[in-house]
Amino acid sequence: MALPVLISAILFYLSFPNFIFLQGFSSLAWFFCVPFFIFLEGKSLLNRLAAGFFFGLLSYLATLNWMIPYSFPGYGLLSIILTCQTVIFAALYQPSKDQKFWPLLYVPAAWVVSEYIRKFVMMGQSWDLGHSQGFDTDLLRTARLFGSPGISFILIFVNYLFYWLLLRAKETSQRKVGASILALLILTIYVYRFFVPLPPGSNSSTALQICLLQPNIDYHGELTDERIMQITDEHIALTREAVKHSHPDLIVWPETAVPTDFLADPRLKKKIVSLVKDIGTPFLIGGDIDDKTGTHNSAVLFDKNGEVENIYFKRHLVPLTEYIPPSFFWKMFAKIFHVESPGLVPGTAEGMMEITARTSNVKIRFGVAICSEDNVAQVFRQYAEDGAGFVIVLLNNGWFSQKEGLVMHAEHSMMHAAENDMPVIRVSNTGLSGLIDRYGRLPQESLDSLEQRKFFLYEVVPRPPKKSSHNLSDTFCVLCLCFVIMKHIYSSFQRKKGNKE
């Protein structure tokens, strides 16, 4: 009986970036859940919960295997937390007792609700099924309306429709209607692209040239003062190589490029300020900056004269990796597995910054996110609403030894770019670095340059500052929640009515 659950888990894993194919076999996500539905049908609540747990756990243990070398306890804990979604979905799943069409809407709505609940459990971080479609540009366009939850809904809708056509639809007329619905949905998705305009060309007067550094530095081992100085020199050397034949509007170093408070270290600060003044270009540099509240994972913006113009402190920290939450559960987990955390302190203000385009002298606002904040959709949505022209994500990613982890992490940025109609620029120590356009499209050179020492030069056309956002992902999730609740109330009423009769 466990075979259908195992098959669905394997198909789920292969839908995401994996060791066989870095971009993942995203087409498998359209039918991965059919065996799981077959197993759930007719099962009691207890059996469905067990199936949901094992399906989720097997799926995420396989999908997140690239985390094992970094933190085995963290790998296991994250897999279990993610599994809560499939458990919730299995609990909400209602076995079909007839061949009516309502489950075609209820089942995908229940999946969206389960992902929505998990997002709150994970303190805003999301890992939706929709992210598996990061490289399907046509499908990503629908994310502008309902975000990744909308794509999750479409995928589960098609999954259940396949299951319904195979096993539930008993009459020829029902099969014809189901097949027509499937054809119409697919046609709508791939015709919709003709109604979504292409991003503006690079001739825009507000275009910026931005230089990204991917130094591919190994940060493992003891970070002595001498080693930190050597790391800084490597960034400086790569920067000078990048600007030999260009004069960008902004140069960006990755997350914790200088893994200490370089503003408080006279030698380091002098090196960096001298570089900024010599090139005459603003710099955005990742580091660990201290203030009176503690140490922060930070991004420091220097103006072209070497003055500190702005500092962003990361707001959404990773439990155990960056800090240990004060709750009893997290403290006990850290104690049992001997987890040592640097004890970073979260920031409180958003990272909206501003630079001036060299050619047009126009001031452009942009948002900054650091590492795991790439998983928090609200961060990007807020920047879009506040008028950011683009978002820069600083990452290290040097802790992950498998390339599929680097690509899987990047699929979040691709989704956020498409959701908010806004370019996202990723700057990572080892990759994946590059410019993701407003369609969610990623240049091939980013995939080809993983774990290579390299710099990138891109011309970025910012999102218009007064452009309104049409993304209704949260509203869509709430509507799905209301539908699921109403369906359960109706089912309860029908059962009571049947008992009375």
What distinguishing features does this structure have?
alpha/beta, single chain, 6-stranded mixed beta sheet, 13% strand, 15 helices, 501 residues, 11 strands
Structural class: alpha/beta
| DSSP summary, beta strand count | 11
Q: What portion of residues is helical?
A: 40-55%
Mean pLDDT: 88
Give the secondary structure arrangement, pairings included.
Layout lengths: L2 H13 L18 H7 L4 H19 L8 H21 L10 H19 L15 H4 L2 H26 L3 H21 L15 E7 L10 H18 L7 E3 L13 H14 L3 E9 L2 E9 L5 E6 L14 H9 L15 E5 L6 E8 L6 H9 L5 E5 L7 H18 L3 E5 L5 E3 L7 H5 L5 E7 L12 H28 L1
Parallel strand pairs: 1-2, 2-3, 7-8, 8-9
Antiparallel strand pairs: 1-11, 3-4, 4-5, 6-7, 9-10
Q: Could you characterize what this model shows?
A:
There is one protein chain. The protein is an alpha/beta fold. It is built from 15 helices and eleven strands. Strands 5-4-3-2-1-11 form a six-stranded mixed sheet, with helices on one face. Helix 9 packs parallel to helix 10 (about 265-280). The protein starts with a helix and ends with a helix. Residues about 200-205 have low confidence and may be disordered.
How do you describe this structure in short?
The protein has 501 residues and is α/β, with parallel strands linked by helices. It is built from 15 helices and eleven strands. The strands form two sheets. It has a six-stranded mixed β-sheet, covered by helices on one side. A five-stranded mixed β-sheet has the order 6-7-8-9-10, with helices on one face.
